[in-house]
Structure formats: structure tokens, C-alpha cells
Amino acid sequence: MSIVSEYLSLGSAELWVLVGIALLILEILSPVGFYLSFSVAGFLVAIKIFASGGTSFVSNVENVLLFAAIGVGLILPIRALLRNRADKTPDINDY
């Protein structure tokens, strides 16, 4: 197995960090609040892999499901936080 395929397998924490960074860049380019939840999910899956230290096929499926569940679960809380923050900033048309 080559070094590249070993580092970029679904059980690799480096891959999930790269996914998190890529989604964070997408969020910066399009500030909607949607990619941010999946970026956080990517980083959390990377932390889980670093903590567990092992990979297997079951772990790979578990990582993808965990990424999807965390990403979907964080959409509403992050959108609510961003909406509350946007509501507190003064509008230029209010002056």
C-alpha cells in the first residue's frame, strides 16, 4: 500500500483534518453557516481517530456515519448562533 493511500484512507485523521480545512475555506468563501457545521464535524472525527489510534473497515464506516450525524446535528445550532449574532449587529439603514 502506498504512503498516499495509507494517509488518505477514511480511517486517517489527516484526511478528516483536510476535509475540515477544505470545508472551512468553503465557509469563508460563502458565509452561509452550512459548511461550518461539517467543518467542525470533520475536526471532531479527526480528534476521535487520534484518540482511538486504530483503523479498521468498521471504524471507517463509523467515521463516515459520525461525520454525517455531527454535521447534520450542528446545522441548526450553528445557524441559530449566526442568526443571533447577525440580529445584534446594527443595520446601516437604521441610522
Helix content: over 70%
Q: Beta-strand level of the residues, as a percent range? A: under 5%
Mean pLDDT: 80
Based on CA atoms alone, the radius of gyration comes out at 17 Å
Kindly name the structural category.
mainly alpha
Sheet with most strands: none
Count of DSSP strands = 0
H-E order: HHHH
Query: How many angstroms separate the termini?
Result: 64 Å
Low-confidence stretches: none
Count of helices? Answer: 4
How many domains? The number is 1
Tertiary shape: elongated
Task: Write structural notes for this entry.
By secondary structure, this protein is an all-alpha fold. The chain has one domain (10-86). It is 77% helix and 0% strand. The chain is built from 4 helices and no strands. Helix 2 (13-29) runs antiparallel to helix 3 and helix 3 crosses helix 4 (57-88). The longest helix has 32 residues, at 57-88.
Question: Can I get a quick summary?
Answer:
With about 100 residues, the chain is an all-alpha fold.
Topology of helices and strands:
Blueprint: H1 3-7, H2 13-29, H3 34-52, H4 57-88
Any descriptors?
mainly alpha; 95 residues; 77% helix; 4 helices
